[in-house]
Amino acid sequence: MPCHPSRPIPSPEGLIEENLLTLAQLRNLVDDLAPNAYRQAFGAHGRHTLGKHVRHIIDHYDALLDGLERGEPAIDYEQRRRDEALEQWPQEAASHLAGIEARLSSLGSATSSDALILGYPMDDEALSLASSLARELAFLTSHSIHHMAIIALLAEQLGIGLPESFGVHPSTLRHWQRESVEQAPLSRRSA
């Protein structure tokens, strides 16, 4: 449903919930991993590990939440911490993810129309793009799911079983649910 200027902007609770569900799914995987599996290198250059993708996701949440907590309207995802401990030690990453979940939960009273500026560096200049909390929460869900889909492929190579819903965007899960209901026999739907 498109947003119309005449309609009130929705509160971010639904977007926060999507992020919380995504992060809980990731934290559950990470919390159970052995460090050697978390650090296992993949790819021709060995640049891909479960841990690097998890740390990358964490960095993006930290960039948004740190800016909000400082009261800064500018968000810059390029200025990330890149804490190597978070890509080396799964239990440390799981703990950090739990902290992000708590921080996100405390945003419940924020309004999604709060104006934010997204800093986007280009070659010799930085763009300042108008954004909002709702827009950035939607971005973080999609960004996280994208990396979780890669994590799922890497985990599969390690023989780690994951739920079918891992790394699947909430909109796709809703679509699957609607399809399931539509394909159910009429007698089951009316029961």
Automatic annotation (TrEMBL):
Pfam families in alphabetical order: DinB_2
Every copy of the DinB-like domain together lies at: 23-151
Domain of life per record: Bacteria
The molecule here is called Putative damage-inducible protein DinB
**Organism name:** Halomonas cerina
